[in-house]
Structure formats: C-alpha cells, structure tokens
Amino acid sequence: MSLQQDIDAASAALEGQVIAWRRDLHAHPELGNREFRTASLVAEHLRSLGFDEVKTGVAHTGVVGLLKGGKPGGANGGVVALRADMDGLPVTEEVELPFASKVRAVWNGEEVGVMHACGHDCHVAILMGVASILAGLREQLPGSVKFIFQPAEEMPPEGEEGGAALMIKEGALENPTPGAIFGLHVTSRQPAGVIGYRPGPTMASSDKLKITVQGKQTHGAAPWLGVDPIVTSAQIVLGLQTIVSRTLDLNREPAVVTIGAIKGGVRENIIPDSVEMRGTIRSFDEGMRDAIHERITTLAEGISAASRATCKVCITKNYPVTRNDPVLTEQMVPTLTRVASTGPRPMGIEVVPKATGAEDFSFFQRLIPGLFFFVGVTPPDIEPSKAYSNHSPRFVVDERGLEVGVRALAHLAVDYLTSKAG
Ligand SMILES: [Zn+2]
Ligand SMILES: [Zn+2]
Fold first, then answer.
1. Helix, strand or coil, per DSSP, at residue 202
2. 19 Cα distance to chain centroid
3. pTM above 0.90, yes or no
4. Which of 30, 154, 399, 403 is catalytic?
5. Do 190 and 378 form a contact (C-beta atoms < 8 A)?
6. What's the per-residue H, E or C state across 112-159?
7. Is position 319 annotated as part of the catalytic site?
C-alpha cells in the first residue's frame, strides 16, 4: 500500500476514537490560558505515541510535540507544522446532548458558563488523531512534523498574554523552524465534510478601538455653559462611518469600522463631562489597516477640536490578516481536492468568500508560509446559512466532518514533506 492509502486506512480505523476524544473534550471545555486538563490529555497522548519531543507549558498551557520521520527530509523544508487551538468560550451551552458542557468558570471576574462553542474541541481531537496516524507511519515520513496545540485563540483573559503570539515569543516556531504550517477551522457555514479555502487574505485583521471624548459638564438646560461630549460623540460615530464608505479603495479589499458601545451621562438634564466609545476594526490588507487607524485618529481629533472638546483615541492591534500564502495554497490545493473527493463520504471542496472574523493563526503566517482552511460541520438536513453559527450557545457539530479534517491535515503534512524531499 502507498503512504496515502495507509493514511486513509488509519484514519478510517481511528474515526470512532477521534469522535470519543471530541466528546470528552466537549464535556470538559476550558477557557483561554486555563486549558490544563486538555493540555495534559494532549501531552500524555503524544508521549504515549513515542514523540521525540513533547514540550508543555508553552504560552501557559500550550503543547508542542515533534515527531521525527524515519526518512531524511528536504534541505529547506524538512519540517512542517500542524496547529490546533484548544480553548473554549464563556458561553452557556444550550444544546441537549449527553456530552453537553455543564462547566462554569470565572472569566474576567464574572462567573460564566463554558462551552466549546467555536469547535476547538474538534480541532484538538482531529490533531490528536493525526498524531496517532503519523506516529504509526513515522518510518515512512521524509522529515519531521511539529504539532502545535495552542491555548487562548479567543484572546487571553484581560491583563494576560497568550495565544499564537506568545507561543511564537516562547519559541514554538524555532528548533526546528517549519517550512510551512497548516491549520483548519470547523464551520457552520458549510455542510459536514465540505472543505473550504481561499488563497490570499482569508480572514480579517481585528483591532480594538477606544475613544474617550472629554467635554465640560453643565446643566442640560444651558449647554452653552459647557462642552457637550454626547453631541460630539454622535458626530464622531457618523464621521467614522465615512472612513470605509468614502476614503478606502474598496476595489482592493473590504473593511469594517464598528462602534459597539457608547457610555456617557447619568440623567436627562445633565450634560456629562465625558463619553467613552468602544469598537472594532476589521480589514484584509495591512496597508489599509494602518490607513484606517490613521483616519480614525485624525477624524476623532478633528471633530472633537471643532466641537471645543478633546479626545483620546486608543487602538489596540489584536490579530493580523489571516493570509494564505498563494504559492503554498496553489501547491496544496490538489491534496485538499483529493481528500475532499475520496474517503467514506466524499463531499467536495469550494473556494469560500472572505470572512470578517479573525484568527490568530495569522501570527504564524507572518513568519512562515501557512494555509488555513475550513471543514464544514453542519448536518446535511440543515441549510448552512440557517445553522447556528460558531460562538452560538446552540452551535452543533456533525461529527462526520472530523474524519475529513484528520485526513486533510495528515495528507497535507505528508504531501508537503514529500514534495520537499524531492
Ligand atoms: Zn471563535
Ligand atoms: Zn475558533
């Protein structure tokens, strides 16, 4: 049997185990930087498979495993990385399942329900399955595979560092440095087992915006005696909406500027001293991202000055654009196509639209070529556009998608290493 057939056979044999892992993880979700149980399951599993290295405690709870193949790898690309994120969300599960989460925890000082509402339980189970398969075939692997189990993709708790950025800071991409990295996300937007991808910008950059407008408090009946930060803020909100609609070249990429919270004032007849606004900024191009930040600051300050108020603009850069390396994507699409058109339930592959959601897989892609793709998990009897989406308390996973995810990552790793080994 060829290596490809070996992978498919091993994946079929392992499907029940991967589903069992996923259900166990689903019943025991953990929040970002608190993935203690998940990380120890993962580390124990990798050790039991005879991995050459298993590093724990990377970026708090991350696990990095190295599996060395029995054949020499190519000079420049003898290492490939696979990544799964491990954290759950502060969401109270509303799905009735025997393995539904009943976990509660404290998030930023508040007691919350915890749920794998983004499907990271699937990602961990899938990558554990890939580890089993590739460890079983290690003598045939031309090079090494680095397994990155990452904490806190959904952002660490306030005041903590975490996620992909911290893993990189702590050396996850060094010793050895992979030539490429692959990752996937399960999605409600596609039927179970369908693979989705796109070359280039795929998911948005995500930045946090806070604007504090400082006026001068006065009686609501005598606005001329003070400076009204509420009217100023209203003008700023409207002004911000002209950045995307009037100043960006939308032939290049779309963008979003959203104000999601405004706070100011305590009663009807007092003009308050200040107003605070919070928002989010999404873009698909790093140049446009910088331009939006500059425009927001100029606009908010200009409108404030014209209103005799002052303002402070604070923009926190969260995640960069998730940008699939075009050359790597082109090279690996035949692999994904083969995976999607074979297996026990061939479902197919499609090029998906950009998504304005964000992913910290983007931090890895800034340093090495990466490909991030999607695997559908919506049951066939539900129209994907009507399915409860990732992050919903009613998000459900059709577990038939997991087997596709396992084969996809295993074949990507092996095909990539084989192509480099020549
Ligand atoms: Zn998410
Ligand atoms: Zn996610």
1. strand
2. 22
3. yes
4. 399
5. yes
6. EECECCCCHHHHHHHHHHHHHHHHHCHHHCECEEEEEEECCCCCCCCC
7. yes
Q: What is the pLDDT of residues 25-43, one digit of tens each?
A: 999 999 999 999 999 999 9
DSSP H or E run through 17: helix 3-27
Residue 76: predicted pLDDT: 66
Measured CA to CA, the distance from residue 202 to residue 211 in angstroms comes to 29
> Ligand 1 mean position to 79 CA, how many Å?
28
Indicate which residue of 153, 154, 253, 319 is catalytic. Answer: 319
Q: How far apart are CA 197 and CA 206, in angstroms?
A: 20
Residue type, 36: F
Q: Please indicate whether residue 388 is annotated as part of the active site.
A: no
pLDDT in tens, 247-269: 999 999 999 999 999 999 999 99
356 CA from centroid of ligand 2 (Å): 13
What is the DSSP-derived secondary structure letter of residue 369? -
Residue type, 355: A
E-assigned strand segments in 168-308: 180-191, 195-197, 200-203, 205-214, 218-219, 255-263, 270-271, 274-283
Q: Quick one: tokens of 393?
A: 């308390």
Residue 37 CA neighbour count, 13 Å, CB half: 12
Centroid of ligand 2 to alpha carbon of 119 (angstroms): 6
DSSP lists the bridge partners of residue 351 as 197
> 385-391: long-range contacts (C-beta < 8 A, 24 or more apart)?
385/189, 387/188, 387/189, 388/188, 389/188, 389/189, 390/117, 390/118, 390/119, 390/185, 390/186, 390/187, 390/188, 391/89, 391/91, 391/117, 391/118
